Amino acid sequence: MTSPSPAERAAELRALIAHHNERYHTLDDPEISDADYDDLVRELRAVEAEHPDLIVPATPSQQVGGAISATFAPVEHRVPMTSLDNAMDAAELRAWAERVAKGLDGEPTTFVCELKFDGLAMSIRYEDGTFVQAATRGDGTVGEDVTANVATITDVPSELATPSSTGIVPPVVEVRGEVYMPTSSFERLNERALAAGDKPFVNPRNSAAGSLRQKDPTVTASRELSFWAYQLGEVIDGPEFTSHASTLEWVGELGFPVNEHVQTFASIEEVAAHCLHWQEHRHDLDYEIDGVVIKVDDPAQRDLLGFTSRAPRWAIAYKFPPEERTTKLLDIQVSVGRTGRATPFAVLEPVFVGGSTVGMATLHNEEQVAVKDVRPGDTVIVRKAGDVIPEVVGPVLSARPSDSVPWTFPTNCPACGNQLVRPEGEADTRCVAPDCPAQRNQKIAYFASRGAMDIEGLGEQMVEKLTSAGLVKDAADLYSLTVEQLVELDRVGQTSARNLVDAIQGSSTRPLPKFLTALGIRHFGPAATTALANEFHTLDAIMEKSTEELAAVDGVGAVIANTIAQWFEQDVNVALIERFRAAGVDFGDPEAAQAAADAKARVPQTLEGRAVVVTGTVPGHTRESAEAAIIERGGKSPGSVSKKTFALIVGDNPGASKLTKAESLGVPILDADEFERLLTTGELPAAD
After folding, report:
1. What is d(CA 66, CA 16) in angstroms, rounded to the nearest whole number?
2. Engineering a disulfide at 399: which of 236, 265, 353, 379 sits with its beta carbon 3.0 to 4.6 angstroms away?
């Protein structure tokens, strides 16, 4: 049996955290305790810290918010709501500034600093100056439609004011910012709750999130929510800005509240001093902040820096140091995951740290327990690293009991009793038994998780019931479950059984990338599954491809391709796929695959491998059709100019920043007629 890699464990953790994050933050109906959730998040951060190459777009370890709730209609963000990288101290902040300077070839840079509000990210859309929609961040691509609730927030204008600087309101304006609950409002909310004999709310951030997700907008209106605007999303026919500061000024002219503590600085040392100031004065405000956001002020420089797979290179969040408390370490136990990895975790006497009650924290692996020398019975320092993530820092040796003995890692799996194995040279201890019930249950739970097949109601507890009763041995068995079988289980009624069966059957129509992710193939995360599905359209086509053909797809590469090919070569996996096929699971669209092949055969690939950027409206094209024409011919059409750009196509009303950058980099600039010749020939105009 091949030892699972850190990439496999990271993929498993992302799917689990995304699901529980959505249950907690979006549905306000968690399936696990806060401590169990925190344990998962901390382990993922540890894996990503040790293996930065495993960080993927929208990783939940860096994402604010979670998946969307079924209570609200989904809203696809026209411009993704990305996350931010974090700097935990001044050294990391300076390292980021050095990367920025390198990316700009040493150009002078102005930084703009904003307070990092501890609330809920929101996108608010206006059409012809009228408020039409509000959506949560969700997973960054799709959020929840909370229009009716946001309409009750007095800070959010129903009609945009006409900016004095431009004299017009663009036809589409999307303003983004943070919905939050002022500290004073939170205190009044808890006073009312206590007076009514209700349980008090935990913290302003979760109270704001829960208030926004009320079915009754009048409840939201009673919660005294507020809003800070801090950036723009989609804007059609809007002005070109020369700085982030001027952007915020314009947003303020539209009628939005912009925080008064936005400041610009010429050096990173001034920025670091500013961060330290607010670290010391964070509690002086009537709202909670957990850091400072630092951005490059110049939009042209931002375009040059671009994005990583998950965040802009031109911005970073300086996170304030976490609060620390001491508590009792009651026990050290071991959990076994889908890949057989045995992870020690601390069972704590519950302690309230930084806005949440912590009862458990990960200890990572056997070596970490030994290095920290934490023992059951110790008084330990618990640090809340970030918003909701607890960490055992170490023991308070002066309080250690005299009869204390070091903790030793168990030799047998707590789930199946088989011997645990620690391969030579590896930090992780694993259960390698193929019939381990913990691994089996985790694989099925992963298949059903939010990031995979998204089967509502099929959490770990239900999976345990199904496998214990012998109804399910693997994920394919789910599709043969009946209501009659489920109602025989403990505490499963007719309605719950019917809902679960319907949810399982409904999952069979999930898009191909979701099913590919659900298979749990090592290294095969959402980015790669989407890339392969977009390229080949069907599972059968993917299975037929060679390792080389898979690796040639942008976003896949040799390592992932090799893992995929090996997985599909195993008879047991092929048999599993055929059982899914028999169950009616969607394997993709053969007609789309054929249409794509036919289209590629008809259109000469004159731009294969070339990046062509479009700015403005090209006569004879919409923005979308111009980009589609480039892609149809094998090219790419990114949103920003870089040194790798083959040509910039300039239409009517172009963006000044793209033109300026293209000129500074020596990128060829083409007009509409030259664009048509480029599409036909793939050649640039001859130099004068």
Report:
1. 12
2. 379
Fold classification of 611-681 (topology level)? Rossmann fold (3.40.50)
Rounded to 10 degrees, the C-alpha dihedral 607/613/617/620 comes to 0
Q: What is the C-alpha to C-alpha distance for residues 608 and 155, in angstroms, rounded to an integer?
A: 49
User: In angstroms, rounded to a whole number, what is the distance separating the alpha carbons of residues 370 and 374?
Assistant: 7
Whether 588 contacts 539, CB under 8 Å:
yes
What count of other Cβ atoms lies within 10 Å of the Cβ of residue 606?
17
Phi, psi of 170 (to 5 degrees): -60, 155
For 111-131, the three-class secondary structure string (H helix, E strand, C coil) is EEEEEEECCEEEEEEEECCEE
Residue 595 — pLDDT band, cuts 50, 70, 90?
A: low
Do residues 335 and 343 make contact, with C-beta atoms less than 8 angstroms apart?
yes
pLDDT at 3 over 70: no
Q: At what angle do helices 623-632 and 672-681 cross, to 10 degrees?
A: 20
Query: Any idea which of 13-27, 477-491, 613-627 has the lowest mean pLDDT?
Result: 13-27
Q: What is the number of residues in the chain?
A: 688
Question: Looking at 116, 319, 384, 514, which residue is catalytic?
Answer: 116
**So where are the chain's domains?**
6-71, 76-319, 326-420, 455-507, 512-600, 611-681
Tokens 């172009």 identify what position? 654
Q: Is 328 noted as a catalytic residue in this protein?
A: no
Q: Cα(671)–Cα(93) distance, rounded to whole angstroms?
A: 41
pLDDT, position 622? 80
